[in-house]
């Protein structure tokens, strides 16, 4: 029952993640202003509620990291099949917004009081950048996409595109129950394209999808090139699920 409830909360969070993140950013902004300009009021109104919410969403993030659904989101407008946005990224982004806003507020207060130093600013910059990247990742729901032309994995910093002509094969790490990555091998590696700083040059992230399911889909479209043109349609997705081996989830 608890697992089912967490699953529903995670699904709703992913579905409405833009609204959730906007609300989180608004609360973080108000908290930063309160800490920076009215510290007594900020501590009284925000410290304990934000502390509780931070701990709660971080616990949810840890729990949902173990969820590996075996399904895709159909995106006919692209067209593509995409792995679902990971709920744990949304929870982590929310969990870190509170501490980040408090840090920014403290820096503002120190600046107003004329006691801010380089040692106050330097640690805050990478911290704020990290939280910003996490929010962007959660907002966009980056993951793996299957296109008629190949497989694409994107992140806030870069992307990895593997054309079907590269004949990719996926290898699940031996002994791994729920691996967070799927090693890739290419018959034609020169066709693989990388932009920016991709998460990996030879692996796909599976921290938001069942690795066996992902590997089976890759194998299916490598072996059935005539089906690739229909990727992204609901009819093709239903046919794909019907032809794949038994799935868990």
UniProtKB/TrEMBL annotation:
Keywords, sorted A to Z: Membrane, Transmembrane, Transmembrane helix
Protein name: Uncharacterized protein
TM spans (from-to): 48-67, 88-108, 114-136
Source domain of life: Bacteria
């Amino acid at each position: 029952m608890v697992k089912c409830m967490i699953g529903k909360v995670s699904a709703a969070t992913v579905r409405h993640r833009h609204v959730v993140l906007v609300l989180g950013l608004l609360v973080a902004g108000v908290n930063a202003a309160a800490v920076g300009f009215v510290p007594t009021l900020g501590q009284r109104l925000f410290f304990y509620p934000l502390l509780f919410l931070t701990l709660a969403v971080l616990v949810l993030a840890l729990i949902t990291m173990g969820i590996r659904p075996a399904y895709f989101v159909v995106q006919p407008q692209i067209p593509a099949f995409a792995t679902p946005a990971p709920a744990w990224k949304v929870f982590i982004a929310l969990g870190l917004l509170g501490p980040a806003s408090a840090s920014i507020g403290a820096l503002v207060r120190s600046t107003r009081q004329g006691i801010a130093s380089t040692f106050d600013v330097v640690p805050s910059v990478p911290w704020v950048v990290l939280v910003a990247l996490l929010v962007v990742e959660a907002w966009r729901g980056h993951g793996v996409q299957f296109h008629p032309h190949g497989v694409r994995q994107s992140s806030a910093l870069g992307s990895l595109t593997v054309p079907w002509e590269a004949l990719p094969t996926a290898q699940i790490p031996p002994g791994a129950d729920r691996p967070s990555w799927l090693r890739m091998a290419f018959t034609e590696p020169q066709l693989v394209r990388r932009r920016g700083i991709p998460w990996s040059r030879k692996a796909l992230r599976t921290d938001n999808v069942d690795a066996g399911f992902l590997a089976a889909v890759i194998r299916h479209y490598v072996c059935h090139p005539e089906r690739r043109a229909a990727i992204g349609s609901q009819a093709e997705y239903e046919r794909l699920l019907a032809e794949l081996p038994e799935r868990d989830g």
